[in-house]
């Protein structure tokens, strides 16, 4: 027989997103953050100068456009969702 009891748990959720490049707060939609910003996380190998460090950053859509405009080869569009 199992006897249940109520427990309170805490959940972490994103409260605010700041663009790492321009420092502006990324607009939050009333239902939450949608895919309106770019997030990256990378764990670097030894010998890269960032030995074993994991880096993470978020950038707004405007800064993403500016960043990829500097690429010699544009990002590959893997999928396009029709709205
Ligand atoms: Zn930005």
Give the helices and strands as they follow along the chain: EEH
Alpha carbon gap, first and last residue: 51 Å
Radius of gyration from the alpha-carbon trace, in angstroms: 19 Å
Fraction of residues in β-strands: 15-25%
Total helices: the number is 1
Kindly state the number of beta strands.
2
- Main sheet characteristics: 2 strands, antiparallel
Approximately how much helix is present in the residues?
A: under 10%
List the ions, cofactors and other small molecules found in this model.
zinc ion
Low-confidence stretches: none
Write down the overall mean pLDDT: 92
Could you explain the architecture of this structure?
With 83 residues, the protein is mainly beta. It has a domain at 14-70. It is 10% helix and 17% strand. It has one helix at 61-68; strands at residues 37-43, 54-60. A two-stranded antiparallel ribbon has the order 1-2. It is extended. The site of zinc ion (ZN) has 8 residues, from strand 2 and helix 1. Zinc ion binds at residues 19, 21-22, 24, 59-60, 62-63.
Please outline what is shown here.
This protein has 83 residues and is mainly beta.
Descriptive key words:
two-stranded antiparallel sheet; 2 strands
Would you spell out the secondary-structure blueprint of this structure?
Layout: E1 37-43, E2 54-60, H1 61-68
Antiparallel strand pairs: 1-2
The structure holds zinc ion (ZN).
């Amino acid at each position: 027989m199992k006897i249940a009891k109520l427990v309170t748990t805490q959940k972490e959720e994103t409260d605010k997103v700041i663009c790492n490049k321009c420092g502006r707060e990324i607009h939050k939609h009333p239902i939450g953050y949608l895919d309106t910003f770019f997030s990256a996380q990378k764990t670097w190998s030894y010998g890269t100068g960032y030995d074993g460090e994991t880096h993470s950053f978020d950038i707004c859509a405007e800064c993403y456009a500016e960043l990829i405009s500097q690429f010699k080869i544009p990002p590959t569009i893997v999928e396009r969702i029709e709205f």
